[in-house]
Amino acid sequence: MPIKREGGSSILSCLPNLDPETGLLPPGRYAASMDELYTALVTSTGSAIRREIWEEWSTHRTMVETQVGEISRMWVGGSFVSSKPDPSDVDVTYLVSASYYDALDHDTLVDLNDLTDAGWCAESGLRVDALILRLPKRLPVSQMAPSLLDSETSESFRDLGLYDEVCQAVKPASVHSVPSELRRGYVEVLL
C-alpha cells in the first residue's frame, strides 16, 4: 500500500512509496517530521490501532525525554512503517547527544533500562519496542577518525552502525530464525 494523500500524490515527498509486494519501505533511512509521519502512518490509514499506538508512543517518548533531558532524533521502523493495517507496536530508537547521555546518573540509567525493556513496556500498556543510543560527540570530519581511539566514541559509532542494520532487517516469524535476505527502510525523525 503506497503512502498516498487524496488525489494520489505521495504524502511525504522525502519518503518513497511502500513496495506493493512487501508493504515495506525500500531499504534505507528516510527523513520525515513528526507531523509528516503522523499524517502518513496514522491519519491516512484511518486505523484506530495505529492512533492508539501513536498515543502510547507519545507517552513513552515523554518519559524518555524526561529522563535524558533531550532526544536529538529518532529512528522509527518495524511493522508501524509498513502497509500492515494494525501493527502490534512501534519500533523506535532514541538517539541522545553525548553531552546529555554522559551526564546521566546510575539511577537514571536504571530507569532507562526499564523504558527499553519490552516486558516492562507491555506491563505498562505501552506498545513500544525501544532502544536508546548515545550519539558520538559532534566533531569536525577531520577529527572523526582519530576520535575512534576513544572507547565511548568508538562504541557510539559501532552501535549506530549495528542498529542501522537491525532496523533494516526483516524479522523472521520465529525469534530463533535467521532474518530473511529481504531488507526494509525506516524513518529518521529530526527533533
List keywords for this structure.
single chain, 191 residues, alpha/beta, five-stranded mixed β-sheet, 7 helices, 5 strands, 40% helix, 16% strand, disordered N terminus
Can you describe what's shown?
It is a single chain. Helix content is 40%, strand content 16%. With 191 residues, the chain is of the alpha/beta class. The protein is built from 7 helices and 5 strands; from the N terminus they run βααββαααβααβ. It has a 5-stranded mixed sheet with strand order 1-5-2-3-4, sandwiched between helices.
Which SSEs are present, and which pair or pack?
Blueprint: E1 28-32, H1 34-43, H2 48-68, E2 73-77, E3 90-96, H3 98-102, H4 106-115, H5 118-123, E4 128-134, H6 141-147, H7 151-168, E5 185-190
Parallel strand pairs: 1-5, 3-4
Antiparallel strand pairs: 2-3, 2-5
Helix pairs in contact: 1-2, 2-4
In total, how many beta strands? 5
Q: Regarding quaternary structure, how should these chains be classified?
A: single chain
What is the rounded distance between the termini? 27 Å
Poorly predicted runs: 1-12
Sequence of strands across the biggest β-sheet: 1-5-2-3-4
Note the overall shape: globular
What composes the largest sheet? 5 strands, mixed
List the helices and strands in order.
EHHEEHHHEHHE
- The overall average pLDDT, rounded, is 86
Quickly count the helices: 7
Structural class: alpha/beta
% residues in beta strands? 15-25%
Helix content: 40-55%
Global Rg: 17 Å
